[in-house]
Amino acid sequence: MKKLGVSLVAAFLALSAAHEGMAAKKKEAKVEKTRGPAPVASADAISEIRGDYKWGMTTQQVIDKINARIEAGYKDRLAKTAADPGPNDKLRKAMRDETAAVKKNIVKFDGKKGPWDVSIIDQEIVQGAGLSMLFMKEPKSTRYFFFDNDSLYKMFIAFDKEMLEGKKFKDFGAAMQVKFGKAQEVYVTQNNSIGVKEKKLDHLLWRSTTGDGLKLVDRSEFYDVYCLVLYNNSVEQRVAAARKAADAAQPKGSMLDNVVGGKESDRDENDNVIDRITGKEVFKPGDRRAAQQNITVPSPGAPSRDIDK
Which of 106, 113, 151, 253 could pair with 257 as two cysteines, CB 3.0-4.6 Å apart? Predict the structure, then answer.
């Protein structure tokens, strides 16, 4: 038992070191200044991405919309089995189970760091700033809803790998510009693996006439995925300022120092970070590279100590 405990700590330290390396690389990347405002995206295309969701909705209102879509998906099948109680009851139970599970996908960023801080949405998180998130699997993507004090202000859509069709980010971006219109290219300058500075396309940027921002971001370096982010620009700017302040307030000691020094005592011993290393197939969305799975983001519903029950 003692040997197993030591091996788990060693594995966690290795994973922590890898994530620290990723975080350091992000901090080293310098976003180049853009000239002028971003182009205005197609209003129809933005409306399609937004769907039935509106800024300011509460978590429960978003859940109600999701559940309405789930129930609509069962409508025809329920009608066809109306005269057959057995199959009809099974369908109704499946529908109730599916709608009941939606609430389990709520995550509150209440100040305790966890696996979400090293996931596909890590750059969207600010701990202890009143933010929360709800995620759901869609036919070709996973959608993450972000709330500021229970008010919807951002949707982060991670496309499934099949949607990318093997395209490089610039090529996929060109295809998206056919849909949304010409975008502003935003580059970062960073050191490559041999320490030489290189310029890299980081994201494409649009704006709207109603104060929304839209980005296509490249998350392929670690997650093999591209993501579309639609947000209320005024709220996003305020959250970004809080994120910058939180980063500046971070202690200089590394995660490795904290673990060795015993400062990571609030971590659940069954946390799936350890499970992931030791081979158990329990994952959160965005917790592993897409190359290791059939879709870019695992289906929602994986257990999490951060999920509000």
Answer: 253
